[in-house]
């Protein structure tokens, strides 16, 4: 049933781009550390080439993905068909964090529509691309995007978002380094 792909071919790319939601999973090296799994939505995902993808990481209450990637780079992105034929696609590989204070951020950020709260772009080099049946995934009807996160970020404004990140995004729940707060503080 499942298939391994050498690349994200055009047919697979088309399917991935139709999905309204994807999941990101990372883990620290410590076996006492917490595995993280986050749902992502909005127009925050892009295919860069046949083996590389990126997504816009928005300011939130946690910073687990960024912290885990800085520590070890391991990441899995998963897409599920909630409408139409059943299918699951996983992109497993190595992720890198391009923070909003990095010089490469602006060119990557330009790939996404304007929205407040972009704190980083997560780039992933897929080392394993696979699909599986998804027969157990329920059918759901898409209604619309939630705008709560972007509205919250717009309302906070740039200075308050920086302060929020310094307070909430400096460390993961396991104490790993998150956002580089020294760089954020120096842009105030």
Note down, in words, how this protein is organized.
This protein is of the alpha+beta class and 188 residues long. The protein has one domain: Pnp Oxidase, Chain A, CATH 2.30.110.10. The chain has helices at 10-18, 64-71, 105-109, 148-168, 181-186; strands at 3-5, 22-26, 36-40, 45-47, 52-58, 74-80, 88-99, 118-132. The radius of gyration is 17 Å and the shape is globular. The N and C termini lie far apart (53 Å).
Task: Provide the descriptors you would attach to this structure in a database record.
alpha+beta; Pnp Oxidase, Chain A; 8-stranded antiparallel β-sheet
Give the strand tally.
8
Q: In percent, how helical is the residue content?
A: 25-40%
The 3D shape can be described as globular
Oligomer designation: single chain
**CATH fold descriptor:** Pnp Oxidase, Chain A
Order of helices and strands: EHEEEEHEEHEHH
Largest sheet: 8 strands, antiparallel
> How would you name the CATH homologous superfamily?
Electron Transport, Fmn-binding Protein, Chain A
The averaged pLDDT comes out at: 95
Total domain count: 1
Spans with pLDDT under 50 lasting ≥5 residues?
Answer: none
Q: In the CATH hierarchy, what is the architecture at level 2?
A: Roll
What is the name of the CATH class?
Answer: Mainly Beta
Structural class label: alpha+beta
Beta-strand content bin: 25-35%
